[in-house]
Amino acid sequence: MMAASYFQDARLPQQRAVEGVAFPAVLVPSGPASAGGVDEFLAAVRAERASRLEPLLRDAGALLLRGFPARTAADFDRAVDAFGYDELPYVGGAAPRTNVVGRVFTANESPPDQKIPFHHEMAQVPTFPSKLFFFCEVEPKSGGETPIVLSHYVYKRMQEKFPEFVAKLEKDGLIYTRVLGEGDDPSSPIGRGWQSTFLTKDKAVAEERAAKLGMKLEWTGDGGVKTIMGPIPAVKWDEGRGRKIWFNSMVAAYTGWKDARNDPVKAVTFGDGSPLPGDVVAACGEVLEQECVAVPWRRGDILLIDNWAVLHSRRSFEPPRRILASLCK
Description:
Layout: E1 7-9, E2 16-18, E3 21-23, E4 25-29, H1 37-60, E5 62-65, H2 73-83, E6 99-101, E7 104-106, E8 116-119, E9 131-138, E10 142-143, E11 148-150, H3 151-161, H4 163-172, E12 174-180, H5 194-197, H6 203-212, E13 215-219, E14 225-232, E15 236-238, E16 243-245, H7 250-256, H8 264-267, E17 268-270, H9 278-291, E18 302-306, E19 310-314, E20 317-318, E21 322-328
Parallel strand pairs: 4-5
Antiparallel strand pairs: 1-4, 2-3, 5-18, 6-7, 7-21, 8-19, 9-18, 9-21, 10-20, 11-19, 12-14, 12-17, 13-14, 15-16
Helix pairs in contact: 1-2, 3-4, 3-9
InterPro entries: AlphaKG_dependent_hydroxylases, TauD-like_sf, TauD/TfdA-like
Pfam family, one: TauD
Protein name: TauD/TfdA-like domain-containing protein
């Protein structure tokens, strides 16, 4: 006789069915979660990861665990560990972040009134996480959802609406250009300085690490640097699921990479250097919004995203709100 599962499927009003699959998948405790505490939850993750949790993640692309006894950053760190994925160091990403404990960081620390547009995590560099975890330590007073959308579905919609644009994108890829200061600028959603981007204060080491990412650096004379990445593919092939995915930060860069140093229209171009058509970028932003699911955060929520399948964003919010993140290879 099979042992009863610790997890039980649940439905949310925000969920949607995409090609017959509930998105995101949602699990809640099958009994009173508090009974065995965090240790029992972690043991259940280890026991049912391969049989239950990973197949759900594979089918749906995103999995929300709600109502479990993880409450602190340390609990979350142990939960990520229980899944058994290798950690991916945050090198080359744009968001200002702070290490909290173990392999756990704050999510993007940009101001609460700013939206963060849809993107695949670190799509603008060749080494990106395959999985990412988010955890709600303090739920938002209002707003602050993390909308998610299925990448292959966005590709399909864009292909139907703008076949010529998509053909050029597949042929040429994208070039991303970003100007970084020396230190972090917490007022900007892309305010990570070059020292924390490359985890060094030494320009020569930064150049070496940038070169490993395939990134060119041009020092600006005021202690800052212009980073040029690409051409890099904007559409990828998801080997595991056998489908094309809209794997890029085009809308995020074109609409959101804006601060004292950066003009978003110059932040991303076709791989041949020609400018992107603003109307098509705007239409892609609309597709992303139309097809997304924005689940309101509750304290203790753990959201596991397959970065090969799903783009994510952040809505503006009224503080307090504290969402933590962890990136996995």
